[in-house]
Amino acid sequence: MWSSALLRVRAPPPLSRTTSPADPRGNGQQAREIRPLPGELARNEDESLGNLSPKHARLTIKNVTTSEIASRTGTSPQLSGVLPASSGGTFGRLMRFALANIRRRPERFVLSVLGIALAIAAVTVVRTISASFAITGGDSVTSAIGTHAIWVVPAQGVTYDSAAGALVAEGPPSGITLPDGWTGAEMIAGVWHSPHGQVAVYGVAGTPAGKAILSPRLAGRLGVANGGTLRLGGTAVTVELRGGGPAVTVAPGLARDVVGNTGWWVADEPAVDQGRNDLGRLFGTAVGLPFTQNPAQAPAKSGHGLVYDTTTGSGALSFAQKYASAFSGQVTDSTLGLISVIGLVLGFVIAVSSFLASVQERRREFGIMSSIGLADEVLYFFLVESGVVFVAAWLTGVLGAGVAVWAVLPQLATPVAWAQAAATVAAFLPAMAIVGAIVPVHRLLQQRPVALLAD
After folding, report:
1. How far apart are CA 445 and CA 127, in angstroms?
2. Gap between the Cα atoms of 405 and 43, Å rounded
3. How far is CA 369 from CA 92, 372, 392, in A?
4. Which residues contact 68 (CB under 8 A, 6 or more apart)?
5. Any idea where the domains of the chain sit in the sequence?
6. Is the pTM of this model over 0.70?
7. Model pLDDT for residues 330-353, shown as the tens digit of each residue
8. Is 119 helix (H, G, I), strand (E, B) or coil?
9. pLDDT tens column, 271-296
């Protein structure tokens, strides 16, 4: 067999000495090149083979080709069976190394993932609610005021009722008189406590008496069909399915009987003023109320209302988009948003603490790697392991957050909002994974391998 040729030990052969160019160390002397004499190599190998004991069977083959082995042994060895090639490249080896360390300390991996996942879940829940408010806020303001240019809210303001899924007024409409040339109407908006839960009711001028207009989705919730009868506050009305709004639209008088005298005004400018960007100022000055184009501004409680100019003005965003942004900002700027950020920071601290403990346990192992020129691989290894931990925590956190939001706020959460929140949190993962790996390894890489091996 050809394997006998692999066990040959090369004894030191007679040497011939020749001079070479000047010593590269620059000392002016001539360097000497030591080479075995031709013809002595094979004889020394044959003489040394008989002195080899079986316990010397471990060796390393380097730079030996198949043709060379075949010429010595007369066989054609299959080196692939003796020296299996590494697959997967550098990343594959680092990944296997990281997974082996995880299997060695599975409890640490689980605790690290759970700690970070809880923080990610907290942020995802807040971001999901915020994104849901942004989506539903824009839709709700469009359903409430339509395409009217002016929206006059009461001094008590308006609020979004999450159970009803619509905007409702907190106080009576402002006592104003429409200026000359302006068109508009008073609109009732409140909550009806139906047998099927809270439902928003809008009283809109021009709605036929004895008729209720609602969306097919809301009709399904109330258990009525097109042309059927809906008992609204003791009054029977005929159902007409139209549109996709979240509220039941009826005549203003019936709406006032059901939800009380709560609502707002909507108005449109005269034909001569169409296209102007200061409609809020014109209307507010005429009726004696403050005006704004900023939906984040709330009316003064001691006042008589506030005029919102819903035209785009000089901005690129519509009033509904601005309102949705301000609406969602109330969630992220609240105490709930602050708690979620603190939780994310604590989760990051948990990850760094876990990596610090791992570094201390493996100082000798990394000292050996550094001593053979693999110092860079130490950092790459921790980068890969940190990435595995954070990706596992992200998947666990966002899935847990989705389940929690749908269980607690099913009427508010949407898949789109959850996906937006998950993507927002994922944007922070690369930075967290890199910093989480660099912090514990930084001091390790500053030490000499001898210091690491001495511990």
Report:
1. 38
2. 81
3. 18, 6, 27
4. none
5. 2-79, 91-132+333-454, 149-309
6. no
7. 666 666 667 777 877 887 788 788
8. helix
9. 998 888 889 999 999 999 999 888 87
